[in-house]
Amino acid sequence: AGKITKIFITHLHGDHFFGLPGLLCTISLQSSADTSPRPPVEIYGPLGLGNFIRRSLELSHSQLLFPYVVHELVPTSDQCPAEEFKDFSSLAQPEAAPPGAQGRRIHLDPEEDSYLLLEDEQLVVKGFRLFHRIPSFGFVVEEKARTGRLNVQKLQELGIPAGPLYGKLKTGSTITLENGLRVSPSDVLHHPIPGRKICILGDCSGIVGNAAVSLCFGADILIHEATLDDSQEEKAREHGHSTPKTAAGFAELCRVKRLVLNHFSQRYKPVALRASQGDATVATLLKAQAQEVFRGGDVTLAEDFLTIVIPMKK
Amino acid sequence: AGKITKIFITHLHGDHFFGLPGLLCTISLQSSADTSPRPPVEIYGPLGLGNFIRRSLELSHSQLLFPYVVHELVPTSDQCPAEEFKDFSSLAQPEAAPPGAQGRRIHLDPEEDSYLLLEDEQLVVKGFRLFHRIPSFGFVVEEKARTGRLNVQKLQELGIPAGPLYGKLKTGSTITLENGLRVSPSDVLHHPIPGRKICILGDCSGIVGNAAVSLCFGADILIHEATLDDSQEEKAREHGHSTPKTAAGFAELCRVKRLVLNHFSQRYKPVALRASQGDATVATLLKAQAQEVFRGGDVTLAEDFLTIVIPMKK
């Protein structure tokens, strides 16, 4: 836990965020030996989260040994049934935020139809809107594309000598040769190497707006809930949840490579999800229902502590 | 969880109450099939707890399928170092408490030096003050004594005929025989049968006030923390915690029958606490340190899911 630097909360149902103050205390315990100053842990989640965290830590006299900051996504009222929408915008943000740790309120970018959570040299993380009993969000974590490899054959054809000029082209500069020829990076670089893309959706019975599909398009992994099986579709929808068909339909639409289903109702016992034979009828059912719609890709049923490795592209 | 009717929180450190909103949701899930009206779940804990629960449930849109009520113990400022004392008395109690579920604020009874939490025909539960980093409480759950058995020999000697008069005497009424003799229950009943007494202390480095010893005196079980072993006594005290010696000293003073130590620092691995050989050196150490002081009684090191049966007295 001591290595966590960013935390993302999809929505404010108890089973998705009540554990957060405790997790922060655990991070604090595990980092107590480390006295070097560290950047704040950044927490992203729906409006109201900051107040909850601050109040919980205040009430429990918890003095975290690291700074943290809460950035709050402001939902729109079409993310849940009208009667369930609560406006937490008047909830005070932490009145005693540590210096430099004042969280932002992140509003929907109306042009992009998404929330820009963070961007650095390597990564972009964006949020998009889901429909649930209360406002819920999906997150896309995307690595930026890396510069393509140098096309050595082309470099040689153009008579460019190996050395510093290669470096300039590789880092994006156009160069001019002694013979007056101008060479731009795109002339001598292979295609950029795409980064990996991971999409994680909170509880939902569907998406809101048009951006989700383009944001998730071609993702290496899409993590989508499937609380109930397809025979319970009406009940699932009524509670703001999905079935394998819903999840797989979205995966198919986005042409993702791999679909991971999670958040199964307790009626589907973990052992049944894991078993490969015998008890596996229910698991087989959930998987089969997803596979029937998501013909192109791989379906995995999540279980606790599941680890999936996504290799870097070359 | 669906059978829980009362919950007691010793103090407001995160590892002792952050799980409460989640527990309430679990109780709600497990009672969802049961539509019969039920009395509210009663929650007892330090001042500030009600506000936290209400806010957590409100933020998470949790609609519990049962009523609950929070009774708050008002601590005194000598229960922790002066600089740590926070006054939560201005925190609003639940503004939207369900009808009939308005919690009480329970103040220290200055004569008894204790807090009366609940009393019914069978049980009395009282709280008393502990010293910790923040105000902490101990609880005593005591069964009321049952009326002693009838002394049939005496009844016969007095010439009282078997029948309704036995019942009157047993339920506490004085009777007058035809010959004018007045017989009171104490004349013909054996001694009352004492109830069982269980004492559970929150985190503490010691007690505050004079009532704790008399409240815990002769308890069947005393559950007391021992965060660190005796060689770390100074450090334990500094953090408001106890060692086996502290715990055993209190157990000895109260002449309890059995001492259960809990809340061990992570440095004492659970496996070491459980192992009967080999790895058991640390466990042996903690137990031996307690046993050295608490010579008269039994010492148990608690572990998760430990169950202890206390038979009714006869």
Radius of gyration of chain A, Cα only, in angstroms?
Answer: 23 Å
In DSSP terms (H or I, runs of 4 or more residues), the helix count of chain A works out at: 11
* CATH class category name of the largest domain in chain A: Alpha Beta
What form of chain A results from the Cα inertia axes? globular
Can you write the helix and strand succession of chain A as a string?
A: EHHEHEEEEEHHEEHEEHEHHEHHE
Measured distance between first and last alpha carbons of chain A: 31 Å
The CATH topology of the largest domain in chain A is given as: Metallo-beta-lactamase, Chain A
Number of domains of chain A: 3
The SS-based structural class of chain A is: alpha/beta
Largest interface: A-B, 25 and 25 residues
CATH architecture label of the largest domain in chain A? 4-Layer Sandwich
Spans where pLDDT lies below 50 across 5 or more residues of chain A: none
Beta-sheet strand percentage of chain A?
Answer: 15-25%
Largest sheet of chain A: 8 strands, mixed
CATH superfamily (homologous) name of the largest domain in chain A? Ribonuclease Z/Hydroxyacylglutathione hydrolase-like
